[in-house]
Amino acid sequence: GSELPSIDEYVNNEIKQNGKSDLFGIAEGKNVIFISAESIQSFVIGNTVNGQEVTPFLNRLVEDEDTYYFENFYHQTEQGKTSDSEFLTENSLYPLPRGAVFYTHAQNDYRAMPEILGNEGYYTTVFHANNDSFYNRDQMYPNLGFDYYYDQDAYEVNENNSIGWGLKDKQFFEQSMKYLQTLEEPYYAKFITLTNHFPFELDVKDRSIDRYDSNSNTLNNYFPTVRYMDESIELFFNQLKDAGIYEDSIIIIMGDHYGISSNHNKAMSQYLDKEEITPYDHVQLQRVPLFIHIPGHGEGEVKSTISGQIDMKPTILSLLGIENDEDIYFGNDLFNEDRKGYVILRNGDYITKDYIYTSDNCYNFTTGELLDETDANACFEFTEKVNQELSYSDDIIYGDLFRFVDFGEEK
Ligand code: GP9
Ligand code: MN
């Protein structure tokens, strides 16, 4: 493995951006309400099933003048699924190629966003109606600097208000409000939804749209549960407005990882009206929605920036006007034009504005066309950087390298 000084040098030269974005500090002192949206993929946004919109609320949010919607935003998770997406978001480091870093490296030193925010006077907390030891969160959250975790014990859960993995999302948001209203501002509050989880079970009375019709029950069931989540988030927005929290907050909604695996490619190709799901299509299906909603901002738009979960920490800190120059991380501020120009999936695939690299092939990003060897050369040039970046991130975790650095904060 590498030593920290060489990693630091690499990050300074290759990853860190020059200057600040125009949005630096635009949300200074505001609450951050972060919704980790279970298993939602971008292909449902703006799409229909049986002639009905799948996500009417989120579709309106895409168009909202206070929202930035990122249409080329990729999840970068592996086996640790939700916990990997949390790890990426809080640390701007990659999760591990195997297993869940939340389980295997929960005792490491990190320099996570909750800790940084805590040093800036923020109260930091997670809301999620599951057992606190699931994914080792009871160990990992305090280590990442979270002040408190409202786990399943904070909620009234019974047979009527739960399905599948537990408390239904509408109940989850509603029951969270009484806690949210007592938090000292400013706060960073992460809400992790649960209902839109494989195998996408939902009571008939909670289904606002019909299931799809294909050979995959998983895909068929997916649409009504995605719609249910869309409605839950809409209700939550209304509750935030009613409670007077909305104006003092920015609201971020991010998909955590895919919901429909490649086992369902046949049904997926039917739904998307394609002959087959190519390796290119498979990579494009790893896009998850990212909404950054800044009440009163008025300048929101749809962004095509090639981006991923690794970018969340630098982006949020920049919006809040927090300098973090000494830190070591692998993402970029989404609103700063000076970006490294590629996003890496955890299996080594990567995406640039021109290319998609997957299983030793390169495709034209826009057309999906497979490139021959000559045309692919410019694409293959990224491979070395990509592997270097992943292995540096892994070295930090395997070697617990941050225990050797004082990032200048008080502990
Ligand atoms: C578990 C929930 C779902 O608490 O976050 O985890 P997943 O199976 O999606 O990784
Ligand atoms: Mn998940």
What's the helix and strand layout?
Blueprint: H1 4-15, E1 31-37, E2 48-49, E3 52-53, H2 56-63, E4 67-70, E5 73-74, H3 81-91, H4 101-104, H5 113-119, E6 123-127, H6 137-144, E7 148-150, E8 162-163, E9 166-167, H7 169-180, E10 187-192, H8 217-242, E11 249-255, H9 265-272, H10 279-284, E12 290-293, E13 302-303, E14 307-308, H11 312-319, E15 342-344, E16 350-352, E17 355-358, E18 361-364, H12 373-380, H13 383-398
Parallel strand pairs: 1-10, 1-11, 4-13, 5-14, 6-7, 6-10
Antiparallel strand pairs: 2-3, 4-12, 8-9, 11-12, 15-16, 16-17, 17-18
The chain binds (2R)-2,3-dihydroxypropyl phosphate and manganese (II) ion.
General description of the model:
There is one protein chain. The chain is of the alpha/beta class and 411 residues long. Helices cover 33% and strands 16% of the residues. The protein has 13 helices and 18 strands. Strand 16 and strand 17 form a beta hairpin. Helix 7 runs parallel beside helix 8. The protein is globular. The structure holds (2R)-2,3-dihydroxypropyl phosphate and manganese (II) ion (MN). The site of manganese (II) ion has 6 residues, from helix 3.
